[in-house]
Description:
The chain has 390 residues and is of the alpha/beta class. It is 36% helix and 10% strand. The protein has helices spanning 3-18, 81-91, 105-116, 138-152, 162-165, 184-193, 218-223, 237-250, 259-263, 268-277, 289-292, 296-305, 330-341, 369-377, 385-388, and strands at residues 52-57, 60-62, 65-66, 69-70, 75-77, 93-98, 122-124, 157-159, 197-199, 256-258, 281-284, 310-311. It has a 5-stranded parallel sheet. A 3-stranded parallel sheet has the order 1-6-7. A two-stranded antiparallel sheet has the order 2-5. β6, α3 (105-116) and β7 form a beta-alpha-beta unit.
Amino acid sequence: MTRRSLFALSLGGFAAALRGQQLDPDLPLRDYEPHSALTVPETKIERAAFPVIDMHTHMGFAARREEGQPDQGQRRFLAPPNELLPVMDRRNLRMLVNLTGGYDKGLEDSIETFDKAHKGRFLSFTEPWFSRAEEPGYAKFQAQQIEVARNRGAGGLKILKTLGLYLRTQETGKLVAIDDKRFDEMWDACGQLGIPVSIHIADPVAFFDPIDRHNERFEELVNHPDWSFYGPDFPKRQELIDARNRVIARHRNTQFIGLHVGNNSENLAACAASLDRYPNFSVEFGARIGELGRQPRESRKFFDKYQDRIMFGTDATPNGVQYPQQLFGDLLYQIYFRFLETEDEYFDYAPAPCRPKGAGRSTASACPRTSCARSTTKTPNACSPPACKK
Length: 390
């Protein structure tokens, strides 16, 4: 019997096996939720091995936003503390750092609602007044507001990707650069006051690529086309990282925390180069264990080498169903602890039926115990420039 006839028989058998099934050849990609047939060990981690400080969460956002910018100081809180504390207690979470604490009245509300009402369990960061960036005397005003925020109890400054990807000059419509010198006094003020700057300036590599059949986040970007920064209206991704690095180099006395593995989770070698070059730079890994988990051996080496420069973060967002890999709750933290504390393979990296990047899964990095302890218990200002120097 020829190979061709064998192939024909196999196709016939396959067709026969499918008879009687209701097949949908036009199944929408968004409805595709495959169940893995792989049988591998599954370790359930109920509580973290060490008390955890999650230095990347969002308890609230500006009440209104326009073009990526908060247009007023008021806050819209996503959940009250009494909904968060039971999860924190069950999972051994010592503190949540609320990066989007706002400014002015919004910051006051954040601190009153979370930090002061439950001392030691929450810490709010402030944000810049970008809406006033073109006013005369802004540089000095913004530096003064950092001091005002610190005196009110703010633990640091949060820079959203507003700077670099959304904030534009009114006259020309040109994007304001991350290393624009009008912000120099703001960066310096943080260094003088001893508070860190958590900075998010870019998104995954795929968000800067065409949304086509070659894009590994095609499904995610089809669902959220506004997350794409591809095209002439936006800078190249590396240009954003280079501008951020120029800021870090110019302000050596200010500690910068690069969110999402320094916005370089797909390229740990590049992130490591920044850590080696800038002693005032550290990172956290919120919403990026899906990236780290597909390079588990490199991730483990990265965590082991830079354990004093890596902070625990999740990007947790209460009731954030539109952000499945950031949905605050018991399952989110069990996934992160499993990633850090076990050698499990191929498991869900997001607490949602459909993962952001589609059908892919994660593999744990199995960090050495000392690395795990240092990343999960580090406070946002624990890696100040002197402490980071080798």
